[in-house]
Specification:
The protein is α+β, with helices and mostly antiparallel strands. Helices cover 67% and strands 10% of the residues. Among the domains are: 180 residues; 142 residues, Heat Shock Protein 90 (2-Layer Sandwich). The protein has twelve helices and seven strands. It starts with a helix and ends in a 5-residue tail after the last strand. The N terminus is likely disordered.
């Protein structure tokens, strides 16, 4: 690569030695000022990286104010700050000492000190940029003075000097102003003279580095905003779930209280019915009294089960014949259903299961009454049961309108019912019973019309 002197004197053969020395002096001044500007630009580049680290730490501390202090994260932040102690030996130790106490006031103190440091560094960067601009103005004025002195002797040199010196300098001035505004645009070094290409090449490297850091900062900001929005959405959903849980807890307390209050009157009614049963000789009346007494005993067991649930004591497992229990339940329900609704029980005879009997009866009552309410005054309800492997498959189906699509899409929710006056707790109780046995509950609409509820319950021997 030719020297600066050769580049300037090649088009100026007739120039005098004095003019040549003047040109060399002007160029030397340009190089000196350019080196100073380059040093300041490198300083700005290094400062920007350190400030970005401080801003990232500030973002983490701001997030901790919302989520609560995390000792492990605070330890990591203190370690990162220790790595910056040499740059700011006065303020960094005060911030680290404030973070030693993982409390909210200490976090706020550390954030204030960190923000004070960021403000100081921003002011320092502005002063460096102002110095660069001032030196650039000096370069421009020196170049203009040199051109005035040499214009009469070096016409061609003036043209080349404008092309090689002033034009790149003006472009650099514009780019530095754009850099202060946050616009990182590289410059084409092939349109500049060789003396400027190293500086412009360094400037382009700095611009690429600053643009990369700016993209990382924007991505980090967008990521933090997304995390904040996601956290807010999760918090709202948890609040809604908590409200539903509180309502269910209130319903459970009311149910336990009612169960406690109803047990004594039911005991008296059951005793009176036993007396009537022993005093009557009519077989039909005795059979009906036996059904009523059996149902009262089931209600008493269910009330005791509610109280046990309130005390977190599950109903014990019992071995019984499934067809017999279901037939007893259907015999009682037939008196509560409209005459136009047919009950069809298809349970294999002799099928022994080991399950909570009272809970299973209550599940069947809920499912059959739900189906009857959907059917109205006429329809057909069918109960099927099979054993598949080690699981009992119990199905209750009807030929009514079927389940609403919203229920199939969203699942069973408390206090969500498509029926006027419904509480949505019937299916929830069924789901709770099945889940308590590690089973699975499936809701579906039959292709030929109607609803189908399938209970898959792990079958304890002697199933």
């Amino acid at each position: 690569m030719p020297s600066v002197r050769q580049l300037l004197y090649r088009p100026l053969i007739a120039a005098t030695v004095l003019a040549s020395l003047a040109v060399v002096a002007v160029i030397a001044a340009f190089i000196l000022l350019s080196d100073r500007n380059l040093a300041r630009i490198h300083r700005i580049e290094a400062t920007v990286g350190q400030v970005n680290q401080l801003q990232a730490i500030d973002h983490h501390l701001q997030a901790m104010l919302l989520d609560g202090p995390d000792p492990r994260a605070l330890a990591d932040i203190r370690a990162r700050l220790e790595g910056l102690r040499e740059e700011w030996p006065d303020l960094i130790p005060t911030i680290v000492s404030a973070l030693a106490d993982p409390t909210r006031p200490s976090l706020e103190t550390a954030i204030r000190r960190l923000q004070t440091l960021l403000v100081q560094e921003n002011q320092q960067e502005m002063r460096l940029l102002e110095q660069v601009v001032r030196d650039t103005e000096v370069e421009r004025k020196a170049a203009f003075a040199g051109l005035v002195v040499l214009s009469s002797l070096l016409a061609l040199g003036t043209l080349l000097t404008w092309r090689w010196l002033f034009h790149p300098l003006q472009r650099m001035n514009t780019l530095l102003l754009q850099l202060a505004d946050g616009r990182f645009e590289p410059i084409d070094i092939h349109d500049s003279g060789p003396p400027w290409r190293p500086l412009l090449d360094n400037y382009n490297r700095m611009v690429r580095r600053l643009a990369k850091l700016e993209r990382a900062r924007r991505e980090r900001t967008e990521r933090l905003e997304s995390q904040v929005r996601q956290a807010a959405t999760t918090l709202l959903a948890q609040n809604r779930d908590l409200a539903r849980a509180e309502r269910l807890a209130a319903v459970g307390e009311v149910a336990a209280g009612l169960a406690h209050e109803l047990r004594n009157p039911l005991a008296g009614i059951r005793l009176a019915l036993h007396n009537l049963h022993s005093e009557t000789d009519d077989p039909e009346i005795r059979r009906r009294l036996e059904l009523v007494i059996a149902e009262l005993e089931r209600i008493s067991r269910h009330l005791n089960h509610l109280l046990d649930q309130a005390r977190h004591r599950p109903e014990p497992l019992q071995t019984f014949e499934l067809a017999h229990v279901i037939e007893e339940t259907l015999a009682l329900l037939r008196y509560q259903l409209p005459p136009g609704i047919e009950l069809d029980c298809r349970i294999p005879a002799g099928l022994q299961v080991r399950l909570p009997e009272t809970g299973l009866r209550q599940v069947l009552i809920n499912l059959i009454l739900n189906a009857a309410q959907a059917l109205g005054n006429r329809g057909h309800i069918r109960i099927d049961a099979t054993i598949e492997g080690e699981r009992l498959i119990l199905t209750v189906s009807d030929d009514g309108p079927g389940f609403p699509q919203a229920l199939l899409d969203q699942g069973i929710r408390p206090f969500a019912s498509s029926r006027d006056g419904g509480t949505g707790l019937g299916l929830l109780m069924v789901k709770r019973f099945v889940s308590g046995l590690d089973g699975r509950l499936q809701l579906a609409n039959r292709p030929e019309g109607g609803a189908r509820v399938t209970l898959e319950i792990p079958c304890v021997p002697p199933c």
